[in-house]
Amino acid sequence: MHVKIPLKRIGVLVGSNGRVKRKIEKRFDVKIDINSDAGDVALTRATSESDPSGLFRVRDIVLAIGRGFSSENAFRLFDEEICFGILDLRDYLGKSQADIQRIKGRIIGKNGKTRKVIEEYTEANISIYGHTVSIIGELESFEIAKSAIELLIRGGIHKSVYRFLQWKRIDLKKKNMELWKPSTSDFAKEKV
Length: 192
Hints:
α7 packs parallel to α9 and α8 runs antiparallel to α9. By secondary structure, the chain is of the alpha+beta class. The chain folds into 2 domains: 77 residues, Ribosomal Protein S8, Chain: A, domain 1; 99 residues, Ribosomal Protein S8, Chain: A, domain 1. The chain has 10 helices and 6 strands, in the order βααββααβαααββααα. The strands form 2 sheets. The protein has a 3-stranded antiparallel sheet with strand order 1-3-2. A 3-stranded antiparallel sheet has the order 4-6-5.
């Protein structure tokens, strides 16, 4: 499997003294070969016993680092419950650099406020890099963050997006409370 990442991000993938690369290789039993001149990254199973699905998880980690995430945030993808996705702004806006810059500014917000709000309400991580916006988070959080970003791309008012995020946050909290809500039979067992 081959992945291409920006040359500027190779150092983050390798890490200090190769620490990041080794940690990924060890965790997933894969071999990562990096062509530092072209930004090409080849991923192979280290042994025939290696889990082939690990290559897909490693691909996402490498892509996340390539799209601007720190290694620590990309390592969230070690957990199979965590999702990763890339929104290419060119798919929404065409190739106009002026439009892409304008939308990136809307997503980041003044002094990074909008991005922080989206991350706080969803507990997802967001990276804006080049012509892409990338998201790392649990499935529901990922979907909410993606929806908020798409609202901004389509010209939604920031105040409306913040309100959307507040409602979604309340919904998530309610769902989490219902998951842990004791049943009446639990109380009956305690009295015995």
